[in-house]
């Protein structure tokens, strides 16, 4: 299942269904297909060790997601501002003290996991997260978003009307492409009419982000109820009576989602995350190849520039330099995993050179003249002319290397617009003057070292 199909399935879950709908048969092997894709990504032998090391955390998450799929778990992140009762809500849903609850800001400093007792057969797992406005904000907020990203569903907890910070956080979470539920906690503080009015207001504020039926009222730790008792002698005594948490509606909603969509949501999230990681891997591999290619091209530029400058035979130095260009293209093709034979490399260099000659005939003519003058000059003028000739050879190698690199990146293709357009764009993208200046300086330095 590709990313577009996963996203389409997710959008169908998020979008409210019409009143009358004929359910379509759901493929039974979605999780299996995603698991196979995750294994293929983890075992891909073409991913360089350096890239695996750089993305070690992401690959570890993929391994965890694969284990989660095989166990059939649905991971739910409990998210929100500090002091809204996230940890208390998790404990109320679990029916036990699994998460730390405190009166100070910042009690939850790390992500914690606990299996929901009432839904062990459905594999529902709650994840408590730090508040989005903790005192050491950036680190904990980033952790909270990361936890939400690798969860299958998010319960966002508030205790009143949403602040701008909370609404912004909800929008960011919605962009992570997972379903959201909004839990109005501490609902026992409101009368029935006031509570219903606040719920309606919240539903309007999150329209487009959260479905109406997924905005629920809960009371994770209701305030004790004052009870007045009259003894046998008519004396009144007041005591506080603890009240049980009121989270039944939210628990039932989570269990229903787990039973109906749990495995599909888990597979969707894993597939989306794997898709993002695949893009990251591709980008890192491309960057690594480009860095290696840049060093390779510079190496051949230096070799060709110095060889041209040192060769005392007019024009013949250009012929020898063409061999270096062909060798460079062979090496570049190996860097990009599309090996070319020496003959194929020679033909590619010929195509690129022909396009360069058409675009820059004057420069190539000057190169031939400089090559001829070099054999008839003496003293310092020979050194200067040789450096200029070598710099032009260096520049030509940069152009040939970059054009060949573009051809290889496109899978041995010039694209629909052909070699002429591709080569002209390479020429336009390079700063000729700075390349020639660097080449002359480096070649003169090498020549002076040889003279010394």
Task: List the defining traits of the structure above.
452 residues; alpha/beta; Rossmann fold; 2 domains; six-stranded mixed β-sheet; two-stranded antiparallel ribbon; 60% helix
Element order, helices and strands?
HHHHEHEEHEHEHEEEHHHHHHH
Helix and strand content put the structural class at alpha/beta
> How would you describe the shape?
elongated
* Major sheet characteristics: 6 strands, mixed
Query: How helical, in percent, are the residues?
Result: 55-70%
Domain tally: 2
Mean pLDDT: 77
**Strands of the largest sheet, in order across it?**
2-3-1-4-5-6
* Low-pLDDT stretches: 6-28, 103-107, 375-380
Q: What is the radius of gyration computed over CA atoms, rounded to a whole number of angstroms?
A: 34 Å
Portion in strands: 5-15%
CATH superfamily of the largest domain, by name, is: P-loop containing nucleotide triphosphate hydrolases
Number of helices: 15
The CATH topology of the largest domain comes to Rossmann fold
Query: Got a strand count?
Result: 8
What is the terminal separation in angstroms?
66 Å
The level-1 CATH class of the largest domain = Alpha Beta
């Amino acid at each position: 299942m590709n990313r577009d199909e996963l996203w389409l399935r997710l959008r169908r879950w998020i979008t409210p269904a019409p009143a009358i709908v004929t359910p379509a048969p759901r493929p039974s092997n979605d999780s299996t297909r995603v698991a196979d894709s995750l294994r293929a990504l983890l075992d891909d032998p073409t991913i360089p060790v350096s890239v695996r090391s750089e993305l070690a955390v992401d690959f570890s998450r993929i391994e965890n997601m694969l284990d989660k799929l095989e166990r059939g778990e649905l991971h739910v992140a409990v998210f929100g501002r500090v002091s809204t009762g996230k940890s208390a809500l998790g404990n109320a849903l679990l029916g036990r003290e699994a998460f730390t609850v405190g009166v100070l800001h910042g009690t939850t400093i790390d992500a914690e996991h606990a299996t929901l007792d009432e839904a062990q057969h459905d594999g529902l797992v709650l994840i408590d997260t730090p508040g989005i406005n903790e005192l050491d904000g950036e680190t904990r907020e980033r952790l909270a978003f990361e936890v939400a990203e690798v969860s299958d569903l998010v319960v966002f907890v508030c205790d009143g009307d949403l602040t701008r910070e909370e609404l912004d956080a909800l929008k960011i979470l919605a962009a992570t492409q997972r379903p959201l539920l909004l839990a109005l906690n501490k609902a026992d503080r409101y009368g029935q009419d006031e509570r219903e009015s606040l719920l309606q207001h919240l539903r309007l504020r999150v329209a487009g982000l959260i479905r109406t039926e997924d905005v629920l009222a809960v009371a994770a730790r209701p305030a004790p109820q004052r009870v007045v008792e009259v003894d046998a002698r008519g004396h009144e005594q007041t005591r506080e009576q603890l009240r049980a948490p009121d989270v039944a509606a939210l628990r039932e909603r989570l269990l229903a989602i787990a039973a109906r969509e749990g495995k599909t949501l888990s597979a969707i999230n894993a597939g989306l995350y794997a898709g993002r990681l695949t893009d990251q891997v591709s980008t890192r591999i491309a960057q690594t190849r480009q860095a290696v290619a840049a060093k390779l091209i510079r190496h051949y530029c230096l070799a060709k520039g110095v060889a041209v400058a040192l060769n005392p035979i007019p024009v013949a130095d250009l012929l020898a330099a063409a061999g270096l260009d062909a060798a460079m293209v062979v090496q570049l093709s190996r860097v990009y995993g599309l090996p070319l034979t020496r003959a194929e490399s020679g033909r590619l260099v010929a195509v690129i050179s022909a396009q360069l000659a058409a675009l820059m005939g004057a420069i190539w003519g000057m190169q031939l003249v400089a090559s001829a003058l070099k054999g008839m000059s003496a003293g310092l003028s020979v050194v200067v002319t040789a450096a200029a000739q070598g710099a032009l050879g260096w520049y030509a190698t940069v152009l040939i290397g970059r054009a060949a690199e573009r051809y290889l990146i496109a899978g041995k293709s010039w694209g629909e617009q052909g070699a002429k357009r591709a080569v002209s764009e390479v020429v336009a993208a390079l700063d000729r003057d700075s390349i020639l200046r660097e080449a002359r300086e480096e070649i003169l330095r090498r020549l002076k070292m040889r003279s010394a």
